[in-house]
Amino acid sequence: MTMDWFVSLRRSKPNQSSIIPGSLFCSGTLINNEYALTAAHCFNKLRNNVDINDSNIGFICLLQNNMSTYTYESMNGIAIGWELLQQDSLLSYTLQQVQLPVISYTNEYCRNIVYDNIIQFCADFIQGGKDTC
């Protein structure tokens, strides 16, 4: 599977050379040749105010769709990222990929780890093995 549309978001320090990559803080998905879409929590601790009238800031609107009635149970999802390969280790320098089964929210295991099934879903091997955060 090719992941050419997946990007790492990195933070550099002031006066850091542009040829030295900054530290990874999040990832995103390319949505066109100029923009990447990422999770809101990637930027919830910005130190500087963001001017939403800046021409470099744009909003996207996802079409209303009754997605809550669609079930992904018994399907497989693919999670990718620069994750820890084992607990208490460093991030991988190689992009990792894992295929995980989507589990019903009616499953007790999922109800214990998913706090809002409208905005989250459960994809995991209940018996253990590969996973992602």
UniProtKB/TrEMBL annotation:
Where do the Peptidase S1 domain residues begin and end? 5-51, 55-133
- TM stretches of this protein: none
Question: What SUPFAM superfamilies does the record point to?
Answer: Trypsin-like serine proteases (SSF50494)
- Which top-level group of life is the source organism from? Eukaryota
Q: Name one GO molecular function term.
A: serine-type endopeptidase activity
One of the GO biological process terms:
proteolysis
Write down the InterPro entries for this protein, in alphabetical order: Peptidase_S1_PA, Peptidase_S1_PA_chymotrypsin, Trypsin_dom, TRYPSIN_HIS
Organism source for this protein?
Rotaria sordida
Instruction: Indicate whether Ubl conjugation appears among the record's keywords.
Output: no
What Pfam family is a match, any one?
Answer: Trypsin
UniProt keywords, alphabetically: Disulfide bond
| Protein name per Swiss-Prot or TrEMBL | Peptidase S1 domain-containing protein
The answer to whether the entry has keyword Repressor is no
